[in-house]
Amino acid sequence: MKIDCRKCKNYYVTWDPNNPMGCRKFGFKSKIMPSDVVYQSSGAPCNGFEEKGSVKK
After folding, report:
1. What is the DSSP string of 24-45?
2. Could you give phi then psi for residue 5, rounded to 5 degrees?
3. pLDDT digits (tens, 9 = 90+) for 12-46
4. Given pLDDT bands bounded at 50, 70 and 90, which one contains residue 7?
5. Which residues contact 14 (CB under 8 A, 6 or more apart)?
6. Is 27 left (phi over 0), alpha (psi -120 to 50) or beta?
7. How far, in Å, CA of 39 to CA of 57, rounded?
8. How far apart are CA 24 and CA 1, in angstroms?
9. Using an 8 Å Cβ cutoff, are 40 and 28 in contact?
10. Which residue, 2, 15, 28, 33, shows the most beta carbons closer than 10 Å to its own?
11. Does residue 2 surpass a pLDDT of 70?
């Protein structure tokens, strides 16, 4: 299942035109969706996904 970073509270849009998408959880910006970067780097789906509006337990 593909993770939609736009639904994650850690996702943000940057001012950097070269790297317009960012992840606060892992502290990076990229040209492609952050969950894809995590998958390419680790071979595992992103484990930092936290749905917007969800309550942290």
Report:
1. TTTTEEESS-HHHHHHHHHSS-
2. -60, -30
3. 999 999 999 999 999 999 999 999 999 999 999 99
4. very high
5. 20, 21, 22, 29
6. left
7. 25
8. 22
9. no
10. 33
11. yes
